[in-house]
Specification:
alpha/beta, 6 strands, about 160 residues, 4 helices
């Protein structure tokens, strides 16, 4: 059994004219929510052993909070930027076997679609949401559509 957490980046800042989508940073709400969500996971006993992030600034900033809370670095995966479900599940299926609790940090609609494809549960991920999925596989390479079960969807609003 593996645990895969699929996370959407925290709220980003649209206030800088001319800045590319890839380079948008977190806004004040995003900078507040990301560390709070990271602490919640640790407080609830979720100890990540791998954090893989889209190369976009807002995703990397979000992933850095989760990684820091677990004493990890982040692994940047450019293919997670604007990734399709197929790409997200392929990235997850290529995770190293020694990892048992991994997080991918990316973007919608891909992350929400990946949760639905993996678990059969349609879950819309708002910004900074984390879908915790139990994946009934012995190796990540066995991960396929329908091999997961949605255990919990956490959002920043849950903690309010």
């Amino acid at each position: 059994m593996k645990t895969l957490l699929l996370a959407r980046h925290a709220k980003s800042d649209w206030g800088v004219p001319g800045l590319s989508d890839h380079d948008r940073p977190l806004n004040s709400r995003g900078r507040r929510d990301a560390p709070v969500m990271a602490r919640r996971l640790v407080d609830e006993g979720i100890l990540l052993d791998r954090v893989v992030s889209s190369s976009a600034v807002r995703a990397r900033s979000t992933a850095a909070e989760y990684a820091a809370a677990c004493g990890l670095g982040i692994i940047e995966e450019p293919l997670l930027y604007a990734a399709s479900v197929r790409s997200i599940l392929a990235i997850a299926s290529a995770l190293p076997e020694e990892s048992s609790v991994a997080m991918l940090v990316g973007h919608n609609p891909g992350m929400s679609d990946a949760v639905a494809e993996l678990t059969g549960d349609g879950a819309e991920l708002p910004t900074c949401a984390v879908a915790e999925c139990a994946v009934d596989v012995d190796t990540w390479a066995e991960l396929v559509e329908g091999s997961g079960r949605l255990l919990r969807l956490r959002t920043p609003r849950d903690g309010d």
